[in-house]
Amino acid sequence: MFINVQHISMDAPNNRRPGIAMEPEYLTIHSTANPDSTAQNERDWLINPSNTRTASWHLVVDDKEVIEAIPQNEVAWHAGDGRKGTGNKKSISIEICESNDREKTIINAVKLSAKILHERKWGIDRLKRHYDWSGKHCPRILECNNWSGWENFKIMVSKELEELSISTWAKEAVDWATSSEINITDGTKPKESITLERMITILYRYDKLIQKK
Fold first, then answer.
1. What does pTM read for this prediction?
2. pLDDT confidence of 181, banded at 50, 70, 90?
3. Could you state, in order of their start, the residue ranges of all structural domains in the chain?
4. How many angstroms separate the CA atoms of 212 and 189, rounded?
5. Half-sphere exposure (CA, 13 Å, Cβ side) for 184?
């Protein structure tokens, strides 16, 4: 999943990017509570002079794209648990837009969440809601039937995370195939069914590798 990096400046108004280094331990999900706003709108709002709030976030996702506004190794003010709260000081935040194609937006949010969990070798236990830190009813887009939407979201992320994970018995072979010396596949989607096109490409790269030896 491509992340469009558009970091706001360190001198953004109202201390929205404080520049405090962070070693994240959690991933926190929010939604924008704005039915008319896109990911780009949300990013631009962070630097809009009319915005007087200190609140900020790391990533925002809609039905078309993902934008990163603050680096994932810096603090953002999103969890509502204060300047020393674990949510603010120890978690990466994702804002889910509530506009346009909501189903596609949630699918994109699932993929983004799984990507971050996978890259950081985190389990689903690291996935939190804004609600978990401060009791705010957020992410509103998933708040239905006593938070059943949140439970379904976690199930979807778990399935996507499983797709990204390599089985123990295959790890050595995958490490070999994706190493810089071999490099016959990038190793993405290891449990995805292989297409003829992909299989031919792998065989072609392996043949070129053999010919060099």
1. 0.83
2. confident
3. 4-164, 168-212
4. 28
5. 19
